[in-house]
Design brief:
There is one protein chain. The chain is α/β, with parallel strands linked by helices. It has one domain: Purple Acid Phosphatase, chain A, domain 2 (4-Layer Sandwich). It contains five helices and nine strands; from the N terminus they run βαβαβαββββαββα. The chain is globular. The relative contact order is 0.20.
Amino acid sequence: MKYHILTDTHFHHRRIVSDFGRPKGFEEKILKSMKQIEEGDIFIHLGDICIGNDEEEVTKLLHHSAAKINILVKGNHDGKSGNWYMSKGFSLVVESLVIRYEGKNVLFSHKPLPRQPGVDFNVHGHSHGNAHRDEEHTPFYESGYHVEFALEKTGYRPLLIRDLIYKKK
């Protein structure tokens, strides 16, 4: 069983290519790369699935996941209820989640969160690999504790948790 994470897919965002620099075809690249997720795996989306056209976009995303368990950690653009997302195929919908992984407690959230007692890492999205959100979390951000995941830095593909956490070492 492998744990795959993805964040800030922003499907159906009409200006993300022109105004924010994502390449044309980024949605297809993301969906194609989800073939690495196999039956029995766990898929965690760290929020901001889409901006508009929710029903179609969430269905499309989950159609490409063969995971046994699909978890949504809601982001600031995920405005539907947890029950709505679960009715579309998510197994669990949360604001944040702590998982014990290889002897470490890993906190998953959309935005970086202040240090939590007993947590070794905070894996988060939201920042898109650039400084446009620094003012939101600079007062508490710790480089050894916070692990940013940005599709802009991974070639628009999901990563295995181990590859994200242990790349820092």
